[in-house]
Design brief:
Number of strands: 26
CATH superfamily of the domain at 4-217: ANL, N-terminal domain
Strand order of the largest sheet: 2-1-10-9-11-12-13-14-15
Largest sheet: 9 strands, mixed
Strand content: 15-25%
Number of helices: 15
Helix content: 25-40%
Length: about 500
């Protein structure tokens, strides 16, 4: 198998009339998914361009999923764009991406994309056209497993988002591991929570088409109303979820598990941020027979490289391990001198190697070369590994435990965020002289310290809201007469961090 479309087509041969994707507004079978995607692919392929970016600016749901596969049929790679993202950030991504097309629909076609407006192509028009199977077959014949499938844009430390580019081989390998490890099948019903521009969705999408499962896109609004959320899970007989811990904690926070049963839910996977053990213990109390798994990994290795299936009891104050490497993935931990750490309790930086590794950052060689490096333990031949910036340590069970980030990147609300990007956005406000963002891990808040005598907090917050996605907007803004500096003349972030506990 060299192309992700083979997974979709093989499953369609077996379960063509079975529902594949649903979003509350519409539902498509596997056969309908392929037919629609081939029409989209034929439309895009008419340009005669391959291995280039096609931006998908559609509301989260079935049409977006169908469009992804349509882009892949055309021999290009898709880039999900959040419809709620400020246009200024979209244009910043497009400067790096230089897409050949932007897929829109009736709801998003009015978004002003400036000089990229001419690239818009309507979903409704593409699916109304005929398939050109001869053209699609020629494209497939020339495709290889290292061709790109998608690029997901993550926060960048310089204020410029980074596009992680992932190929067929990585996804096929990862999806196969997911299906076999968690025993997924045509009986599996996923309840999708994460946005499609977030790497956790890769498991939902590709494990679904690999196994013949069904994927229900849960309306975002339900995560504000836990009772309605549980009703949705039960009505659709969802038996498998892969959510950020914040979503799982929403249900336990309001004591929903003691009031309403979840008879169908059997597999609960989580990733993206630290799972509070107290909340996990509540889930295990009320659903003792379910499988629970802590998955860990960055977008740069497709999605996950390490996992832990919960197999013992934990105190509320004990951390949940992130576990050990997935099949066909190798991880190692190095100290500051580049020496391997194998004994328990000593923190070091986590490295990954294997086929899950992404190609790097699209059109960003400097950042790619910083993160994807020659294996420091191998001087005999070229071998690229991913230098994660995550600090981890081994425990006495031989499992890895997450400690923190090595740099200024944080995990907040399930997203990996570069604090530098927040500073870049806030610093662009005319009345801000200088600013620094720090993370208050105790309260899970992003705090922005800023200088500026005439700067009004509400105006600054409104300005930042128009620059950044909602999950990156600081929860607290604090004016300061002068930002502290260290001996090198740089902002003293340690001093700012200390102010949080005073």
């Amino acid at each position: 198998m060299i192309n992700v479309l083979e997974m979709l087509e093989d499953t369609t041969d077996k379960y063509g009339s079975k529902p594949a994707f649903a979003d509350g507004m519409m539902q498509v079978t596997y056969s309908e998914t392929v037919a629609l995607a081939q029409k989209i692919g034929s439309s895009l392929a008419a340009d005669g361009i391959v291995r280039r970016a096609v931006a998908v600016l559609l509301p989260k749901g079935v049409t977006e999923l169908v469009s992804f596969f349509g882009v892949v049929y055309s021999g290009n790679f898709y880039v999900p764009i959040d419809t709620e993202m400020p246009v200024e950030r979209v244009l910043l991504i497009f400067q790096t991406l230089n897409p050949i097309r932007v897929i829109v629909d009736q709801k998003t076609c009015g978004v002003d994309l400036g000089r990229y407006n001419d690239l818009k192509t309507r979903y409704e028009e593409m699916i109304a056209r005929e398939k050109n199977m001869a053209l699609l077959d020629r494209i497939r014949k020339n495709a290889i497993d290292t061709d790109p499938v998608y690029a997901l844009f993550t926060s960048g430390s310089t204020g410029v988002p980074k596009g992680v580019i992932v190929c067929h081989r990585s996804i096929i390998d990862y999806a196969g591991w997911c299906v076999s490890t968690f025993d997924l099948s045509a009986e599996t019903v996923f309840g999708n929570q994460t946005p499609f521009y977030f790497s956790m969705s890769v498991l939902d999408i590709y494990a679904t088409i690999r196994s013949g499962a069904a994927l229900f896109v849960i309306p975002k609004a339900l995560f504000t109303f836990p009772m309605n959320l549980i009703e949705f899970l039960n009505e659709n007989r969802i038996n498998t979820v892969y959510w950020v811990p914040s979503a799982l904690c929403l249900i336990t926070k309001f004591n929903m598990l003691s009031a309403v049963e979840l008879p169908y839910l059997k597999k609960i996977l989580f990733a993206g941020e630290v799972m509070p053990t107290k909340h996990l213990n509540l889930w295990r109390k009320y659903l003792p027979d379910a499988l629970y798994a802590n998955l860990f990994g960055p977008t740069e290795i497709t999605d996950i490289g390490i996992y832990y299936i919960v197999n013992r009891e934990f105190r509320d104050d004990e951390p949940i391990p992130i576990g050990n490497a997935c099949r066909n993935v190798d991880v190692f931990v190095l100290d500051e001198d580049g020496q391997p750490i194998t004994e328990p309790g000593i923190a070091g930086e986590l490295y990954y190697r294997g086929t899950y590794l992404a190609h790097g950052y699209y059109n960003n060689w400097d950042k790619t070369n910083e993160a994807y490096v020659q294996n420091p333990l191998n001087t005999a031949y070229p071998e690229i590994v991913y230098k994660s910036g995550d600090l981890v340590q081994w425990n006495v069970f031989g499992e890895l435990v997450y400690v923190s980030r090595k740099d200024f990147q944080i995990k907040h609300m399930g997203y990996r965020i570069e604090l530098g990007e927040i500073e870049n956005a806030a610093g662009a406000f005319s009345e801000v002289d200088r600013c620094a963002a720090v993370y208050d891990s105790q309260h899970d808040d992003i705090v922005l310290f800023y200088e500026g005598k005439r700067c009004e907090e509400e105006k600054l917050k409104e300005f930042v809201k128009n620059k950044l996605p909602i999950y990156m907007v600081p929860q607290k803004l604090q004016k300061i007469a002068r930002l502290p500096l260290n001996e090198n003349g740089k902002i003293d972030r340690k001093t700012l961090q200390m102010r949080l506990v005073q």
